[in-house]
Amino acid sequence: MCGRVNFPGSAETAKRLGVNDNDTPKDGDINGFAFKDSYVFGLADRAPDTLRHFHWPLIPGWSNTYPSYQTHNARSEDMAERSAYKHLLGKRHCIIAINGFYEWERSREKTPWYFSMADESLMLLAGLWDYNTKLDAPVLSCTVITREPNQVVGEVHNRMPVILTRADADIWLDMQLPYHERAKVLQPIENSALLRVEIGKSINKAENKSGDWFNGPDEKPLSLF
């Protein structure tokens, strides 16, 4: 699942995407994760030339409480059957712009890995958005769409976010296209487009914002046998 990300501030994100940012500038987060008060930046299919500041995870527009279930990821295979997402398909698409994401290898050591774009561009994640007016204040929120992984991610984890090229992102955001045409872009990205790096376990501490895990993986103790 995609729940830990590295993303730049809103001003840098808007500049790199070539769009306007009409909201109050916000900082990025080198160790951001989806929880009640988290946010990310991206574009929505309505006015895609303006940066959006999304609450993450998604709060369904019909809900009068924060969801008690996980809504930071929507599985592409069954999101059309989920009450939180099905009414958004073809109507409220978005992309979330990040530098990269973290995953933990499913092994005894739970080795952390960082995934980014090989060309150092922003990573564009396919998502869905909703607008809630039933809470104390209106909230624009999003979820990241996930699917079965390509080889690069699959060697570490059994899920990956749907990563779009800029051309595919434009298709995903194009409200003039029928949903079945827009959904064709929800494919695993080419292996060569991704860079995978093993990192240090200091990333495990959510409050750590130093980035020291990028200095390299922790030294493994020598076996005596």
TrEMBL record:
<keyword id="KW-0227">DNA damage</keyword>
<keyword id="KW-0645">Protease</keyword>
<dbReference type="GO" id="GO:0016829">
    <property type="term" value="F:lyase activity"/>
</dbReference>
<dbReference type="InterPro" id="IPR003738">
    <property type="entry name" value="SRAP"/>
</dbReference>
<keyword id="KW-0190">Covalent protein-DNA linkage</keyword>
<dbReference type="Pfam" id="PF02586">
    <property type="entry name" value="SRAP"/>
</dbReference>
<comment type="similarity">
    <text>Belongs to the SOS response-associated peptidase family.</text>
</comment>
<keyword id="KW-0378">Hydrolase</keyword>
<dbReference type="GO" id="GO:0106300">
    <property type="term" value="P:protein-DNA covalent cross-linking repair"/>
</dbReference>
<keyword id="KW-0238">DNA-binding</keyword>
<protein>
    <recommendedName>
        <fullName>Abasic site processing protein</fullName>
        <ecNumber>3.4.-.-</ecNumber>
    </recommendedName>
</protein>
<dbReference type="GO" id="GO:0006508">
    <property type="term" value="P:proteolysis"/>
</dbReference>
<dbReference type="GO" id="GO:0008233">
    <property type="term" value="F:peptidase activity"/>
</dbReference>
<keyword id="KW-0456">Lyase</keyword>
<dbReference type="InterPro" id="IPR036590">
    <property type="entry name" value="SRAP-like"/>
</dbReference>
<dbReference type="GO" id="GO:0003697">
    <property type="term" value="F:single-stranded DNA binding"/>
</dbReference>
